[in-house]
């Protein structure tokens, strides 16, 4: 199994689904329902200027949805006028990013410190290069022992189980000295 200090962010990053700040909220919802769990908002030079996730959308829902993102009731729960507004009105602007040459260990520390499962990968000019997801890190670290680096069915369970164990560990109260 590779060590988190041996694997770089660039080795595990994946393309980000991008939109402009003028994209309507309803269009963003449609994209998120079918293509991506989070949208990266970029300017014309592909510089990262924001992000839209379920967190942003829940804030504009008329009432608490029963099943976020998977239920067509979302369209009924957002005022049509709000849905026509640009994502610029709801996006998160203060984005925690990471450079591609950082280690996966660093990425996990950053994710833990800000309580994110996804980080945007940017170059020194702030140009978006991709994203790195916590699940991809776990897949890589656990599936390397398969030999081929490919996902195997029995490892999907381990990845899921380890992810949930990690989440439970993170939710435990910290003792002094930890």
Please give a structural write-up.
With 178 residues, the protein is of the alpha/beta class. The chain contains eight helices and six strands; from the N terminus they run H-E-H-E-E-H-H-H-E-H-E-E-H-H. The protein starts with 8 loop residues before the first helix and ends in a 7-residue tail after the last helix. 21% of the residues are buried. Residues 148-167 and 174-178 have low confidence and may be disordered.
| Helix content bin | 25-40%
Largest beta sheet: strand ordering: 1-2-3
Radius of gyration of CA atoms, rounded to a whole number: 18 Å
CATH class: Alpha Beta
User: In terms of per-residue confidence, which ranges show pLDDT below 50 for 5 or more consecutive residues?
Assistant: 148-167, 174-178
Provide the domain count: 1
User: How many helical elements?
Assistant: 8
Query: What's the β-strand tally?
Result: 6
CATH architectural grouping: Roll
- At the fourth CATH level, what is the homologous superfamily? CBS-domain
Average pLDDT, rounded to a whole number, is: 78
Strand content: 5-15%
Structural class call reads alpha/beta
**Largest sheet data:** 3 strands, mixed
CATH topology: CBS-domain
């Amino acid at each position: 199994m590779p060590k988190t200090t041996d694997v770089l962010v660039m080795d595990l990053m994946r393309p980000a689904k991008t939109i402009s700040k003028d994209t309507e909220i309803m269009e963003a919802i449609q994209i998120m329902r079918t293509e991506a769990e989070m949208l990266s908002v970029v300017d014309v030079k592909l510089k990262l200027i924001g992000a839209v996730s379920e967190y942003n959308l829940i804030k504009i829902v008329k009432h608490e949805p029963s099943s976020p993102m998977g239920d067509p009731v979302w369209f009924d729960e957002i005022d049509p006028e709000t849905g026509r507004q640009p994502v610029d009105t709801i996006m998160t602007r203060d984005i925690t990013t990471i450079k591609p040459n950082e280690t996966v260990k660093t990425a996990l520390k950053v994710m833990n410190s800000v309580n994110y499962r996804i980080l945007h990968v940017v170059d020194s000019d702030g140009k978006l290069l991709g994203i790195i997801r916590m699940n991809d890190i776990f897949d890589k670290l656990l599936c390397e022992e398969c030999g081929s680096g490919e996902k195997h069915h029995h490892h999907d369970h381990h990845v899921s189980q380890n992810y949930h164990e990690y989440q439970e560990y993170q939710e435990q109260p910290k003792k002094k000295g930890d």
